Amino acid sequence: MAPKTRRYDHARIQTAVTAQFGHVARAVAGLTPDQLARPSGLGEWSVAELAAHVAWIADSLAVGLARPPAAVPELTAVEWPFATASLAGKISEAARETLTGAPLPELYDRAAAAMAGALAENRGDRVLDLWIGDMTLADFLVTRTVELVVHTDDLNRATGLDVPIERQALAACTRLLADALALKAPGGSVEVRIPPFAVVQCVAGPRHTRGTPPNVVETDALTWIRLATGRTGWAEAVDGARVRASGERADLSALLPLMG
């Protein structure tokens, strides 16, 4: 059973993306050379390269909107997580190129201005011509909440900072990744609860119709996001009591991560 298509409020998502980018920009501006040189926890990336990648996220959105529009979207927001792996090397290279362009505060100022101008001139139904596949601006902005929330969390863990995460961005990120799980493993035998943002049913098998489901997974939003993106392993999260899983079908380890 495929998940229902979730609708997002485009104006709220746009506001959340802009605000979250601003939170990261202010944090990056205060990083010391020692903090920037630290490992990010993402392969060989330093914190500086992680920060440059976040600047690229905003800049690439503006660049995409500057190109002629595509005719028809090829990809929806919920399909996006499964299309990212093939572009990991290209995205990493783009981040390194971004870092060589100017000091980080200047990169962020320039990217913020470009993104704001581009968003002001385009509606949500505009179709962007993208590396990953053509998408509407509305759908693509929802994927930007995933990028920004995930990398804000990466930055916090690598530097010890406490950069705030916008509630609307956290909600959209959580819901998109939950829906992606339901798309990857359609069915109704397991209920995944991520309060207060999402509840989805997934995994083929007997479907409950009333009362408490026999197979339930429950966790908080940040733990779910870390599981879905490979920052945390299933066994680690269960052993640390950050995931509560009950029922013989409630082990999701074979389905995670959804994206790396």
In short:
With 260 residues, the protein is of the alpha+beta class. Helix content is 50%, strand content 8%. The strands form 2 sheets. The chain has a 4-stranded mixed sheet with strand order 4-3-5-6. The chain has a two-stranded antiparallel ribbon with strand order 1-2.
Write the layout of secondary structure elements.
Layout: H1 10-29, H2 33-37, H3 47-66, H4 88-99, H5 104-120, E1 127-128, E2 135-136, H6 137-159, H7 167-184, E3 190-194, E4 198-202, E5 216-219, H8 221-228, H9 234-239, E6 243-246
Parallel strand pairs: 3-5
Antiparallel strand pairs: 1-2, 3-4, 5-6
Q: State the order of secondary-structure elements, H for helix, E for strand.
A: HHHHHEEHHEEEHHE
Q: What is the number of beta strands? A: 6
Biggest sheet: strand arrangement: 4-3-5-6
Note the total helix count: 9
Strand content: 5-15%
For this structure, what is the CATH class of the largest domain? Mainly Alpha
User: How many domains, as an integer?
Assistant: 2
Spans where pLDDT lies below 50 across 5 or more residues: none
Q: CATH homologous superfamily of the largest domain, by name?
A: dinb family like domain
Q: Tell me, what's the shape?
A: globular
